[in-house]
Design brief:
Order of helices and strands of chain B: HEEEEHHHHHHHHHHHHH
Largest interface: A-B, 102 and 105 residues
Strand order of the largest sheet of chain B: 1-4
Radius of gyration of chain B: 28 Å
Oligomer: heterodimer
Strand content of chain A: under 5%
Number of helices of chain A: 18
Number of helices of chain B: 14
Order of helices and strands of chain A: HHHHEHHEHHHHHHHHHHHH
Radius of gyration of chain A: 26 Å
Helix content of chain A: over 70%
Largest sheet of chain B: 2 strands, antiparallel
Structural class of chain B: mainly alpha
Distance between the termini of chain A: 29 Å
Shape of chain B: extended
Strand content of chain B: 5-15%
């Protein structure tokens, strides 16, 4: 479509593509590098030579490593696993979960796939390869050091899965509640041209700007003393809100509301209002029109907004670290516990492994939902 | 839509924002003028240790908190103290002292002013960097062949989507001690480098982290904006003999102007609450931000006390700051709305 006059000169094209390559390297390097580090013995992970970090001589010397055969088989299995996920899995999900509950089907499918992948890749494969490497002799000698021991100590010995479950609980709560409340408000705001709606949006924008520590300073005294404050109303069952995951969910939902309603409003504005007007002419009330006409077509916008709610709940450090106590901490603040006692290099590499564990789900998220994330980012901007 | 229906649609959302955003703000305002302290009493105690012939007895006067008999917690009193907490945060006496002595640099030794200086310079300096880098990536991707656009967008989204604390930790691990990038820099500059030993190197890393983290957002939005540039205008500019740079300046950038303003507003809001870098880089001894200051007051000290009053005062000051920063862009939005209504 670009005409000849628009074409770039060779020099400019080289410059532009070189810049792009540099940016991609910059964008991915820290993430790739800490992933590599997390699989090495402590002395290799923090070695000053990059080559040592990649090949891991110390790790290999300790007898943990991959042979050429391991690498070849591993890549093959990985390739087929990914291909299977994109070709067979969608059909399977559609078969088992027909119709409206397809979203649920995807969640179940993704979790089942993840578990199966971990069992095959980290359970069955090492066992089989250990046997094969023994048979092959020189080809079976490890050439790259690699160990999963840090993941084992983080997840099994240090009970990181407890933090993982807390994170999942908080995030799931934040996503469901903030979407339920937010879709209603977003629809209302999109369909009302009144001054009140405009002012609500402006106030929401101001709320969006508030640093979260300002709000937490307001919550803390009330949350710590809530049992005494609420006693006259609820009697003996009045809870101490401090340290309660559901209190955190409520707080994060509220913090996220301004953003959610702005975004959903712009999505609803894209749905032509003739649609619900037609339903109204046929005798539906506003709520009925919303349920029968709007709800079936709103899912792309809702999924996109849900992704951003997920990120907020999952990535939060400040609110959860101040309002939850050590027993039911979520993953991100829990990692702070690692670097407080980070005295030996082993502790440090365990912290790296924990960090990689935290970002792995996000990586999957971008892979699956790239299109939705991009459309979500732009929807907010273009509609303003 | 009738206002009654509208009310029922927005009620749950507005209620949540009232309880969890508006009410805490009022609470913070009140707390910042109050101080809650445990009620102390002085007791005279006599402790005796067995000695030869007679016991040695010492009387001591101790100050201990009164324990409430019903709840088993220390009794507390709350009193109105006016601007005392603000004074404790701002430390104006020290500021005037420094001004009087002509030692302007001493002001930046005080926590609040140090945090304010860093937060403001950080917010304002990263803004052009993020917009510039984002625009550059968008232009480069836009002129690249179609097949590489998808993977490039995927890789670009990673820094944006990653947990900020983890992102800053990742950068920290690359530079800490003899981290590989520190070694690379040492080889390049032929000198010993410790990136986390002084404020200015930490600040440079923070700028790098923030641009790494936020440029993808600007990139995605600019990229979407570039898809809607009017090709006719662009082609007529070519026919009129406009160079590539002139086209960029006079056609593309004006087209992207609303998006630049949008990114600037979001950027001001997000970067003003700079916090995660300080946790990730463990830089609190050298560089702190306003939000970190409030956070630090809220974290219990060794005795388990939280400085709620001072936290509230610093929170109020932080809030005033962001309101001032946003007044200009928001007034513009308001004028546009008024203009659109007529």
């Amino acid at each position: 479509m670009a005409s000849k006059a628009m074409q770039q000169s060779v020099g400019l094209r080289l410059l532009s593509n070189g810049f792009l390559a540099f940016w991609c390297l910059l964008a991915s390097f820290p993430i790739v590098w800490i992933t590599v580090m997390s699989f090495k013995a402590p002395r290799d992970a923090f070695a000053s030579s990059a080559w040592d970090v990649i090949t891991g001589p110390e790790t290999r010397a300790a007898g943990n490593g991959l042979s050429i055969l391991d690498i070849v088989v591993g890549i093959t299995v990985l390739y087929f696993a990914i291909r299977w996920a994109f070709t067979v899995l969608p059909g399977l999900v559609r078969q088992v979960f027909p119709g409206g509950i397809i979203v649920l089907g995807w969640i179940v499918g993704a979790i089942a796939y993840g578990i199966a992948f971990i069992i095959v890749f980290f359970g069955i494969l090492p066992f089989v390869m250990g046997f094969l490497n023994g048979l092959l002799g020189p080809l079976g000698e490890p050439i790259i050091g690699l160990t999963t021991i840090h993941y084992y100590s983080v997840w099994v010995e240090n009970q990181f899965f407890q933090n993982f479950l807390n994170s999942m609980l908080v995030t799931a709560g934040v996503v469901t509640i903030s979407l339920t409340v937010g879709t209603l408000a977003g629809y209302g705001l999109a369909r009302s041209g009144s001054n009140l709606a405009f002012w609500l949006l402006i106030i929401a924008l101001v709320f969006r700007a508030l640093p979260h520590s300002v709000l937490v300073a307001g919550y803390l005294p009330w949350f710590i003393n809530s049992a005494e404050i609420l006693r006259p109303i609820f009697g003996e069952i009045s809870p101490t809100l401090y340290g309660q995951p559901w209190a955190i969910i409520a707080v994060l939902v509220a913090i996220n509301q301004p953003f959610t309603i702005w975004m959903l409003r712009s999505f609803f504005q894209n749905i032509p209002s003739e649609l619900d007007e037609a339903a109204r002419v046929d005798g539906c009330s506003h709520f009925q029109a919303f349920r029968r006409v709007i709800m079936p077509v709103m899912w792309p916008g809702v999924i996109t907004t849900g992704l951003f709610s997920f990120l907020l709940g999952y990535n939060d450090f400040l609110v959860t670290s101040l309002l939850l106590d050590a027993q039911n901490q979520t993953m991100v603040p829990a990692i702070a516990g690692y670097f407080n006692r980070e005295t030996t290099t082993t502790d440090q590499v365990e912290a790296v492994a924990a960090a990689v564990s935290i970002i792995a789900p996000l990586f999957l998220l971008v892979m699956v939902f790239q299109r939705q994330i991009v459309s979500g980012l732009t929807a907010g901007a273009v509609k303003g | 839509m009738k206002s009654k229906t509208f009310f029922w649609f927005v009620a749950p959302s507005v209620l949540m924002m009232l309880i969890f955003i508006a009410a805490p703000l009022v609470s913070v305002l009140i707390q910042s003028f109050q101080v809650t302290q445990p009620v102390m009493q002085t007791v005279e105690t006599e402790t005796c240790t067995p000695g030869f012939l007679t016991q040695t007895c010492t009387t001591e006067i101790k100050t201990i908190p009164i324990i409430d008999e019903v709840t088993g917690k220390p009794q507390t009193t709350t009193e109105w103290v006016g601007f005392l907490s603000y004074q404790r945060v701002l430390q104006m006496d020290k500021v005037w002292e420094a001004v009087g002595a002509g030692q302007w640099g001493d002001i930046l030794q005080i926590d609040f002013w140090k945090a304010l200086r860093f937060t403001l310079t950080f917010t304002l300096l990263t803004l052009p960097l993020v917009i510039g880098v984002g625009l550059a990536i968008a232009l480069a991707v836009n002129s690249a062949v179609n097949s590489i656009r998808g993977p490039v967008i995927f890789i670009s989204l990673l820094p944006f989507i990653i947990t900020p604390v983890i992102g800053s930790l990742a950068i920290y691990w690359l530079f800490v001690g003899d981290g590989i990038l520190t070694v690379a820099l040492e080889n390049l500059l032929d000198r010993d480098i410790a990136m986390f030993a002084q404020a200015w190197t930490i600040e440079i890393l923070m700028y790098v982290f923030r641009v790494w983290n936020n440029a993808p957002f600007a990139f995605v939005i600019f990229y979407a904006g570039l898809q809607t540039v009017n090709m006719d205008t662009l082609e007529s500019a070519v026919i009129d003999g406009a160079s590539r740079l002139q086209r960029l300046r006079h056609v593309i950038i004006p087209h992207l102007m609303p998006l630049i303003i949008f990114i600037a507003i979001i950027h001001l809001m997000d970067v003003y609450r700079v916090f995660e870098e300080i946790v990730g880089f463990r830089s609190q001894a050298h560089v702190i931000s306003l939000q970190w200051l409030t956070y630090d007051f809220l974290v219990p000290d060794d005795a388990g006390n939280r400085a709620i009053s001072r936290a509230s005062a610093s929170a109020m000051l932080t809030m005033i700051g962001i309101v001032i920063l946003l007044i200009l862009p928001l007034r513009r939005t308001w004028r546009d709305h008024k203009g659109g209504a007529h």
